[in-house]
């Protein structure tokens, strides 16, 4: 059928969508979410049909993605017909019926996700079925490989390539900023790509961005790693596993993450990692609550690593409170830099040398932790971070206090004398985000008392930093409501741990960093 | 945050969607699929946020649904903020975890589906989880009631209200056009609403539309039923269970129908049915292949009926070939009318009096089939149909040959002498649709030989009717490819029943009529 093109000068978020009238759809035998083939001057393109009522029956409206790909600007006549169902949708339906899929079938699905041939409805059905039925190890491997194949890869032309990843969940976890320079200073290659915060007050990319640019292109990363052995860059725009972003977009509202393992491991495979330490913070304040859960997850990571040719070790780390004291991009980076200079909190220091030490032992060192400790104490790690900052385009001579933090500041004080019984991770995250983190890099929290510490009545429990007074006010209000730092003289004095239904209305989706 | 409105003069299919820039989204703490609250001059509206890149950061773009509801035309400044997650999404997530939901929770979900507060992603996840976990009877009842509550209802102020439904799948099934006047002629109330074809060559609404208007409003239906005891109208625009259309739109691409039972039964409840016969065509050519499957489904219908206060009986009917000879809206209506006039095929006659007879016995008759037979033979049923046609605005004196059929016609002939061994239902459907049915009402097929009949070489197996020569050519080509009428002298001569992979590329979704 010949239809006249109307162009919508907006994008559909990469999706290839064409809108047709319901009468026209009827004549073509097309239902909403069916595919139509558009042909114009020898070009052919498949689009998802959105069927609208009371529309012009002789027209097809195209979002920018399609009109650009087809080379039309409006007014042209194009041939439109019902396109066959994509093969991948047959495989999606098989998964809905509970069938195990083979590698080529999963690859077809991932390719069609990346090329935007599957609709939100279809991707959501697929992911829900994966979540409910679970993935076999061979499916997990196939999904990981398909996600690598449909993306770009980095190749440094040497081995080993070391890497470190955290599944996240502990506010203030700035460990990567220390591990990368310790490992690089020892002469190993560690090209660290990281993410921005989704639900936390800071991701590693947000933190490092207060020191230097992190949005580097592939060739720039090669250059930085060649010069310094390491890098600390944002992985988001590198298209290492572009399917992942498309899956996450659908998983987020559903609060599920069936592709957690492929998501993390595909990106490690894409940067050519051969040895990888995965940090799994474990504890009441963390995403993983018990060692049993942590070991199950760890075992899956190690097993998948074997299938993908990556030597994986997992670190179960203390997850009952935030790491260090600073929370929020700038405050965390200040603390990381101080720790490299020998002055930071003990837990930040300990976690960094422990994880770096594990990596050293994986590539042959006898006492990895001691080796990491020496590199840190010697100042070589600090020196290495400054090289990386310079190579990425930042100021290598930056001092912690040069990193700007929010000018608006408030203190939250203890209303009684006591001991810190509990720090509610979730409350800390919400207050820091209300203060403006991670978008406003100077916003956040500095903890002045941590678990077990004695506190006098009126003493400062934590400080809130913000870039705008309105945000500071919201954060303070929330802090009063949530009381994230819980004091007690004796445990028994504070029997009410929470309240249900909760006072805050927004349910936070549970998503591991990936 | 204050943003300037841009208006997109297109609809989003009823969905409440607002587009914001990713920078703006970051400041608001909004992710794609999160909800935002738009406030303007005391009005507040919740919209699903679509996050776009490279957009104007101070703007929010609104589809027509939202801009109209908010009373803006573009250029106004509105207050935009992150809205809390709807309660229903929490219940959807619980279902994804496999939890059983209670009636109030399911009602909340159905309400939010109808009010367009849940996204395609979320509805798809919900339906996929329902499909995989299955619904308990109390969930099925709750979904049915919620679908009734969120729609309109008909109340005729009397009882009993009789009804008849077919789960479909047999081409040429024009039984309702006979059952309704038989039952109404006996003095019972039978307000039949029906659907248009989705994947078949004709739905009852498509058929009846060749006799009279079917798109009646609620008050017009009341009037017709008051006059004649019955009606034959299209249920699609009555909003009897508007949630159903929204669910079907998502189920269709996934090829699943977890809500089949609530979908059918909610519409029966909404028209106030007290006694219902459900036709389940069973056989190799039908959707339900074996009596075991049919009895399982039948048992579910009866059980759900008990919960909803509807007396249900199911009829398992012969489903190995099309019903009667005419297939396609006009050809089927001709045949139905002829049968009421005493001249139609035996199978159409038999099925109609059998189903009508079951209804009569449900409301107390001794020999229902005989009663139906008498009403049909006496001409009272024909007379009643003519009353209904007139009441709905058609010509009561219409003769079968007055109903126009496609002027383009071709015959498909036997290439050998033989006996009809098999009629491929699916092939018949595809050829009839290729000829233009159901959109072109005069298009379709007339079978000239049915199961078991002896056929001479060169005899006509079936005729194809079309309104356009191009469609006739496509249908003929498909008929040659599919050979829907299979002949054999002896069974052994035709050993190859099918070929895999199939020659046709389009996989048909399996959807029961509802």
- Tell me roughly what share of residues is in helical segments of chain A: 40-55%
CATH topology of the largest domain in chain A: Pyrimidine Nucleoside Phosphorylase, Chain A, domain 2
Shape of chain A: globular
Please compute the radius of gyration of chain A using only Cα atoms: 26 Å
CATH 4th-level superfamily of the largest domain in chain A: Nucleoside phosphorylase/phosphoribosyltransferase catalytic domain
Q: Assembly state here?
A: homodimer
- Which chains share the greatest interface? A-B, 53 and 52 residues
What would CATH call the class of the largest domain in chain A? Answer: Alpha Beta
Sheet bearing the most strands of chain A, described? 6 strands, mixed, barrel
Please characterize this protein's 3D structure.
The structure is a homodimer of 514-residue chains. The first copy, chain A, has 514 residues and is an alpha/beta fold. Chain A folds into 4 domains: 2-82, Barwin-like endoglucanases; 87-134, Up-down Bundle (Transferase, Pyrimidine Nucleoside Phosphorylase, Chain A, domain 3); 162-235 and 267-400, Pyrimidine Nucleoside Phosphorylase, Chain A, domain 2; 408-493, Pyrimidine nucleoside phosphorylase-like, C-terminal domain (Aldehyde Oxidoreductase, domain 3, Alpha-Beta Complex), CATH 3.90.1170. Chain A contains 18 helices and 18 strands. In chain A, the strands form 5 sheets. A 6-stranded mixed barrel of chain A has the order 1-5-2-4-3-6. In chain A, strand 3 (35-40) and strand 4 (43-52) form a beta hairpin. In chain A, helix 3 (87-96) packs across helix 4, helix 4 (103-114) crosses helix 10 and helix 7 (176-185) packs across helix 16 (380-391). The first copy, chain A, is globular, with a radius of gyration of 26 Å.
């Amino acid at each position: 059928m010949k239809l006249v093109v109307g162009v919508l000068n907006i994008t559909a978020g990469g999706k290839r969508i064409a809108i047709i009238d319901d009468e026209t759809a009827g004549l073509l035998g097309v239902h909403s979410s069916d595919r139509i083939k558009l042909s114009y001057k020898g070009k052919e393109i498949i689009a998802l049909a959105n069927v609208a009522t009371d529309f012009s029956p002789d027209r097809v409206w195209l979002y920018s993605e399609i009109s650009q790909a087809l080379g039309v600007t409006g007014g042209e006549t194009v041939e439109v017909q019902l396109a066959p169902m994509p093969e991948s949708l047959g495989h999606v339906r098989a998964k809905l019926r509970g069938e195990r899929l083979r590698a080529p079938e999963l690859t077809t699905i991932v390719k069609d996700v990346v090329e935007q041939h599957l609709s939100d409805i279809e991707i959501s059905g697929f992911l829900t079925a994966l979540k409910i039925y679970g993935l076999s190890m061979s499916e997990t491997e196939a999904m990981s490989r398909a996600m690598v194949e449909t993306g770009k890869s980095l190749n440094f032309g040497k081995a080993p390539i070391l890497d470190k990843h955290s599944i996240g969940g502990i506010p203030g976890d700035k460990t990567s900023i220390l591990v990368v320079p310790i490992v690089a200073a020892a002469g190993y290659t560690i090209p660290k790509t990281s993410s921005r915060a989704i639900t936390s007050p800071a991701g590693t990319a947000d933190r490092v961005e207060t020191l230097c640019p992190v949005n580097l292109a592939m060739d720039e990363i090669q250059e930085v790693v060649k010069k310094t052995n390491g890098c600390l860059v944002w992985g988001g725009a590198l298209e290492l596993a572009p399917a992942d972003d498309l899956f996450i977009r659908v998983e987020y509202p559903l609060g599920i993450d069936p592709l957690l393992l492929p998501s993390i491991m595909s990106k490690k495979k894409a940067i050519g990692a051969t040895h990888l330490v995965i940090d799994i913070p474990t504890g009441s304040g963390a995403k993983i609550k018990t060692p049993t859960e942590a070991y199950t997850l760890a075992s899956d990571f190690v097993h998948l690593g074997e299938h993908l040719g990556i030597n994986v070790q997992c670190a179960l780390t203390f997850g009952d409170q935030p790491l260090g004291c600073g929370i929020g991009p700038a405050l965390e980076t200040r603390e990381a830099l101080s720790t490299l200079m020998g002055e930071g909190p003990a837990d930040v220091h300990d976690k960094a040398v422990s994880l770096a030490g594990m990596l050293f032992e994986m590539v042959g060192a006898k006492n990895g932790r001691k080796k990491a400790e020496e590199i840190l104490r010697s100042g070589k790690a600090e020196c290495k971070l400054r090289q990386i900052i310079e190579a990425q385009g930042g100021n290598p001579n930056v001092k912690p206090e040069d990193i700007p933090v929010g000018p608006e500041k408030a203190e939250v004080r203890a209303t009684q004398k006591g001991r810190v019984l509990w720090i509610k991770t979730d409350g800390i995250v919400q207050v820091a985000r209300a203060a403006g983190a991670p978008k406003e890099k100077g916003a956040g929290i500095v903890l002045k008392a941590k678990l077990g510490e004695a506190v006098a009545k009126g003493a400062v429990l934590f400080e809130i930093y913000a870039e705008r007074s309105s945000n500071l006010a919201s954060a303070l209000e929330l802090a009063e409501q949530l009381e994230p730092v819980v004091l007690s003289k004796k445990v028994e004095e504070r029997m009410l741990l929470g309240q249900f239904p909760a006072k805050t209305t927004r349910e936070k989706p549970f998503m591991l960093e990936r």
